[in-house]
Amino acid sequence: MPRTSALFALLSSAALFSAAGATPVSSQLAKRYQGVRLQRDNPPEDSLCPPLPFPEPIPVNGVSLSTAHWKDGDNCRRTLNVSVGIRTYSALALGECTSCETNGLGLNDAFWYNLVGNDTEIAYITGNWIFTD
């Protein structure tokens, strides 16, 4: 039995040591933002991604990121998954949403109408999102 106690003590101390120096999960994996506000938004021209040297199609599911996630355009054209209810949609970051909450997203007209329809009474919906690249 003393051998078992020593092994248990060793494993316990190793678990405490690894927990103390553990790297936060958010830095190892992509952060998923849950229960955030999704609103209709069409950002002004000066807060859009810079044009590419070739024509690009406008994606149906375009989003604008909050200022915190836009990071002066560093996240321009990043892909993300947006989940509303049980459905998940692929989207592309196209601009900055200055009126969005910290983790919120602005959805372009096509994406907004795809989710909400023509109901003008709805100001925002709640959903989840994560960068996929």
Automatic annotation (TrEMBL):
Per the record, the domain of life is: Eukaryota
Query: What is the name listed in the Swiss-Prot or TrEMBL entry for this protein?
Result: Uncharacterized protein
